[in-house]
Prior knowledge:
Chain A is of the alpha+beta class and 221 residues long. Chain A is 45% helix and 8% strand.
Amino acid sequence: MITETHGLRLYDYAASANCFKVRLLLAQLRQPYDRVPIDIFAGDTLTDDFHAKNPARSTPVLQIGESTYLSESNAILFFLAQGTPFLPDEPLLRAEVVRWLIFEQTDVMMTVGGLRFRLVTGRLRPDDPDAIRRRNAGEEALELLDQHVRARRFLAGDRYSIADIAVYGYTHVAPEAGFELSRYPAVEAWLRAVEEQPHFVNDLAPYPENARPGAGRSIYD
Amino acid sequence: MITETHGLRLYDYAASANCFKVRLLLAQLRQPYDRVPIDIFAGDTLTDDFHAKNPARSTPVLQIGESTYLSESNAILFFLAQGTPFLPDEPLLRAEVVRWLIFEQTDVMMTVGGLRFRLVTGRLRPDDPDAIRRRNAGEEALELLDQHVRARRFLAGDRYSIADIAVYGYTHVAPEAGFELSRYPAVEAWLRAVEEQPHFVNDLAPYPENARPGAGRSIYD
């Protein structure tokens, strides 16, 4: 989609899988961009300046040219992938990609991703009711995903797309939240197929010490 | 998008705002379709037959032709709107629409919509912790929405689109979950602007008696 006529700047947090998804697509597109580190837990998203870029105070945010900002990780994937092989043109396949972009945020990020964040940073213990709720919902999502990829190599139309990039983001670190991926062998095979794609990179950073409650200032405090 | 060469069939629950969103777009597209009522609370989504159409067991499901099924309400909106004035062609605007389609499911449906369902059907009381959590998150979503439409007539690109249809779905019934829309005057004005669109219909049904816990069989039991 994007060419050299635009400058692209990514407001980005190294330990966020939502941000990693965008970095992965940009790497696979061979698309140059400026990366602006945003330390979520040092209060960087709590400033008026960040609010002007994204009132929801989430990362990533993509700046396109001088003064255009796009938020919501999967909307950024969609924007960048238009006109490239990472987003099919065929109307039904494109709608299937949108389906997975939504599923990822509602059924994977909020469950698997949200549980991992809260366990790893000490916000929940494994037997807290909210942890149990997220684990159960995450297992349902992984089971659905496993069923889906049992008969397919990729999520939409048997070709690698931003649907795979989006769902890979939090699914590949599900073991860090206690999910046993060996129970979902088709998901494991699909994760490996994603990792075999040209120009695949994985630069997702671990949560730093200031991500623990009380150690920093963020929207989670 | 769709023409007479396809048969369209909507597996549909009258009291679901996710289903209503699709009915609203189909009405505004003047698109004929068959409507197949699915009684969520009579176990209609628990059958093997429904699982074959949508393993997630959610409504709505759109059947396209003989054997193609598309689930996820906002993916269905996206599919139907392609090539029509309800989905802009311009790449950035189209990505903005995707952003709102995701926001609606994560920040409106799960909070405002989820709270309304649980209060109205007697699954939660207003002072239950999960109700308070959903109310707080719903108020944040309404505040974000209010900020956004303060300077705009519609959500994406100042033209009515499926972004508006999606977010309208659960937002317009927020008062039934105890949200005071008078605190969000720009949201109220935007709701009226949606209702003034050509061929607007609102056929969202109230939850029936069997939606109460113990009165039926559903994925919520």
